[in-house]
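Help wanted!
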Amino acid sequence: MDRPLTVLGIESSCDDTAAAVVRDGDAPQILSNVVSSQTDLHAAFGGVVPEIAARAHAEKLDLCVEQALAEAGLTLAGIDAIAVTAGPGLIGGVLSGVMCAKGIAAGTGLPLVGVNHLAGHALTPRLTDRLAFPYLMLLVSGGHCQFLIVHAPDRFTRLGGTIDDAPGEAFDKTAKLLGLPQPGGPAVEAAARAGDAARFAFPRPLLDRPGCDMSFSGLKTALLRERDKLIAAQGGLFEVDRADLCAGFQRAVADVLEEKTRRALALYLAQTPKTPTIAVAGGVAANGAIRSALQRLASEHGVGFTAPPLALCTDNAAMIAWAGIERLRLGPADDGMTLAARPRWPLDNAAPAMLGSGKRGAKA
Amino acid sequence: MATLLAFDTAAAQCAAALLTDGRIVATRRTEMSRGQAEALMPLLQEVLAEAGAGWSDLDAIGVGVGPGNFTGIRIAVSAARGLALSLGIPAIGVSGFEALADGTDADLVSLPAPRGMVYVQAVADGQTIGDPAQLAPDAVGALTACHVLGTDSVRLAAAIGAARSTERDLSGIATGIAHVAAARLSDPGFDRTLRPAPLYLRPADAAPPREAPPVMLG
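Answered by r_m:
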């Protein structure tokens, strides 16, 4: 191993403002990992409001960077490079992060590395578990849902993904429809614990079609229909109704993810990887029902399973710093002062654009 | 004496000025409606290079905080805060009203607002007074006669019966920012820990959910 690299990471692509310092070496070390959440700012709106997020990022980024340096016990003189999320994501926040990073890079003369947010998630198992390439990654969060074979820090094959909502978004909307608090994932999971998953017949979208693509928006519509039937009949919902609706919804999401993962795994195993492993990342990977379904699947196939700790599954800047380190290990890198922020930035440009990704091309 | 770099991307431009010892020694301005995030830093490097200066020569940053295009404001403010952090120097937020009023005897400064409106703020001796307001240039009742300066100032002055008007666009804003920031920097009471924050003047476009949560029974 060459001289250890110490990289400052900056992340602001959704509703978390984050900065972190990561050092590689014989074992990667997270020297600090600061995440300032905006959950409270968006709570009243039942979802992330892009303009509110952008405003908060612009006034928090430098504070988070200062805190990350202080917690790492370093000044910028101890940093070798700046890594910043340059997309995909909500463009206002990404822009603020990129401009703050440019200001820091200009003032210090340090190289600036623009990181793909999805690569940050996809490479996290190498930071936490030193996973060997190639591995199968299910990235499942509030904004994303895709299967990737991760071959190298800069080489990904997308096997499939959602053609509409991400599961995290569907959990949030379910919570909203049922009067549960945001973020919806933990609230729905908690309510589902007491519920009967078999009471409502929810669809398993796209399971009847070949391939690894998924759809979750119809599930939300089905939930709304069942909810409205109950309200029409009784004038409201009983706790048991809400628990059963949550359990049925969660089971449907877990079933879809399990079956589609089975298909992705077959495609991945056909490439005869040396140490076959499934890794998950993204906030939805924290869901117990989904995680145990995937674990079961992995052990059925004698395949390794790894899920980073929750703080490194959800949005954070340690993964951005780490992706920067991986990129710098491939060779000298400096994206310089003309680095552009990109709302859309697919990891795998060779894969066909997913349905519903709009006329401006694939989002992710 | 101080060297201060001022810049602004609140309007459809990247504008920068370098001030040394109270004198503007270099300026640059490129009109653009998009691409400011890519163009700003190279433009700042050009301004420094023209004056034979480097980042480490700076004693402070002056940054335009708006009002103006929300995204544009955040581009400049975020860069200013990053530069301030890495250089260990203050970043001083200057509003468009303060920048335009610099060096004039204007009493009211107007700036472009969406949908044909203007933002106005009263000024006296270069200091802004009270809160800015948004108004339609033709729809104002009579105010005391004054010198109106800025966007649509002729119409605005006519509508309020003002004595004088000066039409002034934003092409010279970086120079104004530099002067105002330098004056603030040299004030003995200047607080170096203050950070520039965007001046939006309009709340974020967001509505709470229309649908009420279901009634819980039992």
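OP: Thanks! One thing I noticed: The mean pLDDT of chain B is 92.
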